[in-house]
Specification:
The structure holds two protein chains of two kinds. By secondary structure, chain A is mainly α. Chain A is about 45% helix and about 5% strand. Chain B is elongated, with a radius of gyration of 34 Å. The interface of A and B includes residues 130, 143 and 284 of A.
Amino acid sequence: MAGKEVDALTGIETTGHEWDGIQELNTPLPKWWLYVFYVTIVWAIAYSIAFPSWPWLSGYWGGLVGYTTRGQFNERMADLEASRAGWYDRLGAASLQQINDDPELLQIATVGGKVIFGNNCAPCHGTGGTGRPGGFPALVDDDWLWGGSVDEIYKTIQHGIRNDTDTDARISQMPAFGADAMLTSAQIAAVADHVLALSGQGADNAEGATLFAENCASCHGELGKGEPSLGAPNLTDQIWLYGSTRQAIINQITKPKMGVMPSWAHRLSDVEIKQVATYVHSLGGGQ
Amino acid sequence: MASADAAVAESKVTGTGIGVPPAASAEETPKVELFANRIKVYPRMVAGYWRQVKWAVVATLLGLYYIAPWIRWDRGANAPDQALLVDIAGRRAYFFGLEIWPQEVYYLTGLLIIGAIGLFLVTAWAGRVWCGFTCPQTVWTDLFMWVERQIEGDRNARIRLDKAPFSFDKAKKKVLKHGAWLLIALATGGAWIMYFYDAPTLVREFFTGELSSAVYSFIFLFTATTYVLAGWAREQVCIYMCPWPRFQGAMFDEDSLIVTYEEWRGEPRGGARKGQSFEGRGDCVDCGMCWQVCPTGVDIRKGQQMACIGCGLCIDACNGIMQRFGRPPELITYDSINNQIARSRGGKTRIRLIRPRTIAYMVVLAAVAGIMTFSLSTRARLEVNVIPDRQPLFVKLSDGAIRNGYTFKILNMRREPKSYMLATDGLAGAEISVLGHHNEPGPYVELAVGPDEIGTFKLFVRAPAESLTGKLTNFDFYLIDQGTRESIRYTAVFNAPPHREERAAAAGAGS
């Protein structure tokens, strides 16, 4: 531009352009705005040197202060673990019985156990351990397939049920009486009627009772009270994992469904399993 | 702008009123600026009765404020021994022998109502005594002005100092003044925190740097507000910030005592020499002392106005002048409008404290105070909170019984350990078990709660299906203190699966 043009009326420099006789004043930016702008430029340069910023062809500029989000995450996790260390040590040193007898440890274990349960167990057993249809047992009631003492619960969580990954997993198998032609369908119906009678649902029959004693009592007990060491359910109570109708019982005798649970020992630490076991035991049904 | 500046400059000279041109230009229509510049007020020192009263009130209130947190009150072990304390972390408020739990915070409402109605009553009787004498803004501003006077001198000296060019002496005085102000502000902000923190500990930890950053920032906050409001903002708080002056006029009537100018004998005003006759003229000698001593810079001769805080200092100033001229005192006086009318006519004056308005205030005040006293003296020191489990709502047990879970909280508000007996009422055959305390269900359980503690228990109630009346059954928890036999009932709900008939009815209604 050839020299500055100054508007006579206001005394302010113009942009030098003219549109239909109108000239625009070249009003300067406010000083404070300009300085803040300069500061942000300096800040941006300094920031991009100090922190991860510019991409290379492979990789990126890592920054002088060595910050990474993953590093920060690990730091925070380490802090978290350090803050829990005192409790973890105490929970690790105490036996399950000691944890349940000490109100303070019980509180810590159930609070932690609830979170671990929500992250790992709730998909099958439901939030709060209410169970889900299709053979995922409720953990809040007092009916236990494999034992409801805190030690038995701990063992179940640790090794799981009927899985291939843990040699100590709880194992049992109910024969497929119908599918493998061990009983005729008439016999199965008679056994089903007897089983219904055990829990007070309908009349008993002699044939069913005899067949039950011969085929079922070895696991379920002569009175049908079940056997926790074999995972054989109590047939005299009101809780039925696969349904309490006559048809459901016939189906179960014909071709039984049996639940599978993974082993958690390789996914949760011993303290965590102790916490979950204590939490599950505290849901109300623990024995 | 130029005319506004002139108006400001002129009123600086005569100093009459807030942003209003002086009386000299009364014949012109005064120009009212929407955004008036502040005219700095330089109040002159004055001696007299009301000044004495004000000093006494300032000393008493400041003394109370600074000393009260140091009063000790023994509450036994494990309890703070400070008489006045709002223990935020411990969730308790202490007032001598009184201990308030967060659940009882509604007592604060009663206190605020008493404060408000009390303020209304006092205002109806005696005008703005709150503003003029006891408001913290007034008390601290008075203190700050006193400090200012000690360092920079009285009104004229201060005006000269502000106009003077920069000099070592000026800088020294200003630094000294603001330093003293900041020290007072720090003591004020610190003392405020003492009501929320053990006072001796606070002082020690303040200097050793052990306080949390939150406490330091609150001390800083209250220091800053004290310094800004009492040192810089002053009368602007009363005129622009405070809502009270805007509506306190609603409590006034013609029998309320107010600071007022006896216009009927003051006018026509004019300058006077000592010993001259006051025949045919008013008593006002137009010396301007009344507005020079005013902390908010108003001219009381213009009549009652919002910026007048009713402190009475102009009465002292005018009495001194009247005495010098041998005229009767109380030309500016603390009186009611009715009395002023009576005086101007030579009639009898009287002070009416009992009026319909004040009776109404007193009745409300007595009622609220009565309710507060009654409820405080009979308040329960035992409470329970029951939170039913929502996941699951109920559990069916192997014998067909239904179990519900509850989180049961017992608030033991006494400072002694307690043992309670808990039973249910309304559920035949119901049994209670408590996780970690009573794992075997029984018809009742014993629960122990430490002194001044909330005991939290995970409770299971199991009830036989026959005792339930469908999806919802109401029943009571019945808790009794085994020592004092104090008892409490809490109605809870027992959830259960619907009965067969209910299910059938629901299905029928649906189809």
